[in-house]
Specification:
With 196 residues, the chain is an all-alpha fold. The chain has twelve helices and no strands. The chain has two domains: 60 residues, Arc Repressor Mutant, subunit A; 121 residues, Tetracycline Repressor, domain 2. This is TetR family transcriptional regulator.
């Protein structure tokens, strides 16, 4: 078997991915048309031509997860940003660079993505769910920061720093200039945690 053949997903994985995409696309279309609160999971399943049980099999988190996922990608991406930072780059610089390339902070957004980000930001339940997903990364971010800085894993200052970093997307979401707010937030953190 060739290396390329090993990496290509099988038929079953492709079918699952297509179903997930159809459900997520249907949810976004309906949410933008009618508003988040006015759309049911049954309507989403119907639009995607699947059963409600199929929707929950792919998105156990319900309607919010259809737009924002389950958070597993966030924790892995945060850890990678810290572990794979450049030579001489601080943990805080790496985390700021990570956030600057995502969601409301990214300057490289097409119209459809910008519309989705604005929808999430302006929908209280989705914004609260997004905050919950970020905050759920606290333990893993604290652990990787401890590994990378040589501090003990139970270091309270690292746990506090992790929580503050993970609150930035929510705290800056409604700022007229989120990118400027991101830079200001990390400026404050650098003064509070020099050398991290």
């Amino acid at each position: 078997m060739t290396e390329t053949a090993k990496k290509e997903p099988g038929r079953r994985e492709r079918k699952k991915a297509a179903t997930r995409k159809a459900l997520a696309d249907a949810a976004l279309e309906l949410f933008l048309e009618r508003g988040f609160e006015k759309v049911t999971v049954a309507q989403i399943a119907e639009r995607a031509d699947t059963a409600v049980t199929t929707l929950f099999a792919h998105f156990p988190g319900g309607k919010e997860a259809l737009i924002l996922g389950d958070g597993s990608e966030r924790a892995a991406s945060l850890a990678a940003a810290v572990r794979e930072r450049g030579e001489g780059e601080s943990v805080l610089d790496a985390l700021e660079r990570f956030f600057a390339g995502r969601g409301i902070f990214s300057s490289d957004q097409d119209h459809a993505f910008r519309r989705q980000v604005e929808f999430v930001t302006n929908t209280p339940k989705l914004r609260a769910y997004a905050r919950q997903l970020w905050v759920s990364c606290e333990e893993s971010l604290t652990k990787v920061m401890a590994e990378e800085t040589g501090r003990p894993e139970g270091d309270l200052s690292l746990r506090l720093l992790a929580r503050y970093v993970l609150e930035i997307p929510d705290l800056t979401a409604l700022d007229p200039d989120p990118r400027r707010a991101l830079e200001a937030a990390f400026g404050h953190l650098r003064r509070g945690w020099p050398g991290v």
